[in-house]
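Possible regression after last week's pipeline update?

I re-ran a chain I had predicted before the update to compare outputs. Posting the input and the new output here so someone can diff against the archived version. Not blocking, just want to make sure nothing changed silently.
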Amino acid sequence: MKLRKITTQKDFDAIKSFFFDIFWEVPEYDLHHFKDAIEGRHDFQRLEYYLACEGDQIVGVTGIYADRPDECWLGWFGVRPAYRQKGYATQMLVAQLKIMRDYGYKVCRLYTDEELNKDAFALYLKNGFIKDSDWTTAHIVTMVQSLDGVTKATPWTGKPLALP
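New output (post-update):
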């Protein structure tokens, strides 16, 4: 399994073809994040998305966004239903965290729904993330991991992006 950075309209069309199979609970406007990444229309210091591929098959999508030089967020992490429970999520997460380390980020954060995404929540815990904070909106939690093994992440005090 390899991660391939999305860069073209063809990549965007590929994501559109399976996005709602993974992220069924989100509105369609969220697809604009992928288009913005391809076209460079955003205010982040970094906004990148990757297709997770096994040969010529797309098994999932993952991303990174950052507005600080030392801290980033895992974005739109998901595996297509037909490829779940086969180890791809772990491979994707490990590969994405390596990319983040290679860019020099010291801390990675993410947010997820602890109830609706129980498998993802367990995956993040198993791979070194710790629960950082709870939100009153649904069962949303933020999670954090030191990427360099040295930097201690401070508790997240803002609200996760895109949450009301």
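Follow-up from reviewer: compared with the archived run. The chain has a mean pLDDT of 89. Marking as no regression found.
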